[in-house]
Amino acid sequence: VLQIVLLSLNQTEIKQQLLSQTKSSLKTKMVLKDRLYKVSDISVADQQTVASIELLKDSNVYKGHFPGRPITPGVALVQIAVELASLASQSAWGDMHEYNLEKASNIKFLKEINPSEMSEITYIMAQAGKGFTKVEIRHNDTVLAKMSLKFTNA
Known about the structure:
Elements: H1 11-19, E1 37-45, E2 48-55, H2 61-64, H3 74-93, E3 99-109, E4 120-127, E5 132-139, E6 142-153
Antiparallel strand pairs: 1-2, 2-4, 3-6, 4-5, 5-6
């Protein structure tokens, strides 16, 4: 189980932590919520979740990725989607279900996400075929990243 602990780790320690993991699923513990981002709004309707988040530019993650030019790590963007899926279940059903990330495919990071330039971003998640959820990350009308994720219950 890959558990991301990015609170006080530098870039080298983060890489070592990620490389030391042996399984391919991300556990849904809220490791980044309130440390890297805060949820501004989340809604679920018609098999679609829309979540607006605020990236916390003073997060320790940005001290190592990269000093003087903070960029939100791609692995963090995926973990945020996993966490938001769990939060969406609470919004939709009143009871939070923890999810694991079983598979990720078609991940495309289209634009760097610098929290100083775009602190508010939106995740749009919709059901797709074969159990996958399509995820788009946007800032206003600009698509920043796309991915297809498959979740399983924790």
